[in-house]
Amino acid sequence: MLPKLRLKELELELPIIQGGMGIGVSNYVLAGNVSKNGGLGVVSSAALDRLTSKRLNSFFNARQAACMEVQEAKKIAENKPIGINIMVALQKDYENSVLGALDGGVDVIISGAGLPLNLPEIVSSHPRGNEVALIPIASSGRALEIICKRWKRNNRLPDAVIVEGPLAGGHIAWRSIEEAENPNNSLELLLKDVFKVTQKYNNMPVIAAGGIFTYEDIQKYLQNGCVGVQMGTRFLATEESGASDEFKESVVNCTEDNIVLADKPGSPCGMLFRVIKDCPFYASALEGKREEYCDKGYLLHRGTCPAKASKEEAFCICNGLLAASGYNNEVEEELYTVGANAYKVKEIVTVSELMDELAGKETSVSAKNNSQA
């Protein structure tokens, strides 16, 4: 039996947090069902204004959309806790996404893809600010130390920290492939580094993320001092996720060699970005067929989008990810981001089936995945 996970005043049946995968993959349907089945479901704030506006055929800004997404997730979850992942790199909508999530009754705010130094200040301006659990994502003890020192100015410390290793999907913390693949940056060593810092801050709870795939993986990290794990790709490959059918099929069919870190061309924010190499969007980017443009402006680097300046350096990530969740795939190619272990996925399952597997209840699904991994 896996232990319960306690975060601030919350108690979860299982120590499993579903990763916030944007754009549109971690939607209210996925998050609601994960929480309903005992974990912490997490919606992604990325481009929620567009996704919500299209779904409801009316205009909603970032704050309104975040509020509504959380509310819808909580309905499915039967009012169990719901989290939201808000990327620091999404500069123009960051504050409004935080406030909107609080409006909607969010229980946990997770923030990474940069250091969320201003999160406590933003949260403190809201009437529910003291109710919500705040969890930064860090990939080193140094990063966590910087966050803690800054947050203390607002009389707040993280309620937990997610330590994300280099096998994670989406954006990862390292700027070069060599650094990401350096054995010194393995999740196990990163955790040791972070544990040294958490000891200074009342033994802050630590959650492991990046490359975790099985019940046995979860047990390993719990036995090594973590209170829980965060998993993304396993939940991407569920019936309830917002990924397109083509995206899910590509995950089931991909091989280990087919999963790469996009560098040049890569994400406009300058961070490495793990993708399926032969997905339509990335294949075109590698061949130099992508135009130099940015018409969404969500993911900026120092206030601008490098995809406007050079197709050799960056591609318009927002459009590709929107297409992969069905938003604009009639006019745009799809971009598929996954974790390094996505090749181990052999079939698409329901959230309920997956949660049973991850909780250690042997099922035909887990038996098939384990035998073919």
Describe what this molecule looks like in 3D:
With 373 residues, the chain is of the alpha/beta class. It folds into two domains: 247 residues, Alpha-Beta Barrel (TIM Barrel), CATH 3.20.20.70; 98 residues, no CATH class. The chain contains 15 helices and 13 strands. An eight-stranded parallel β-sheet has the order 3-11-10-8-7-6-5-4. The chain has a three-stranded antiparallel β-sheet with strand order 9-13-12, with no helix packed on it. Strands 1-2 form a two-stranded antiparallel sheet. Strand 7, helix 6 and strand 8 form a beta-alpha-beta unit. Helix 1 packs parallel to helix 3 and helix 2 packs across helix 3. The longest helix has 15 residues. The model has no long low-confidence stretch (mean pLDDT 92).
Summary, kept brief:
The protein is an alpha/beta fold. The protein contains 15 helices and 13 strands.
Name its key features.
15 helices, TIM Barrel, alpha/beta, 3-stranded antiparallel sheet, 373 residues, single chain, 2 domains
Q: Strand pairing plus helix content: what structural class? A: alpha/beta
In CATH terms, what is the fold-level topology of the largest domain? TIM Barrel
Helix fraction, binned, reads: 25-40%
Q: Main β-sheet: number of strands, strand sense, barrel status?
A: 8 strands, parallel
CATH class of the largest domain: Alpha Beta
Please tell me the overall pLDDT: 92
**N- and C-termini, Cα separation:** 23 Å
Q: What is the correct CATH architecture of the largest domain?
A: Alpha-Beta Barrel
Percentage of β-strand residues = 5-15%
Shape: globular
Elements, N to C (H/E): EEEHEHHEHEHEHEEHHEHEHHEEHHHH
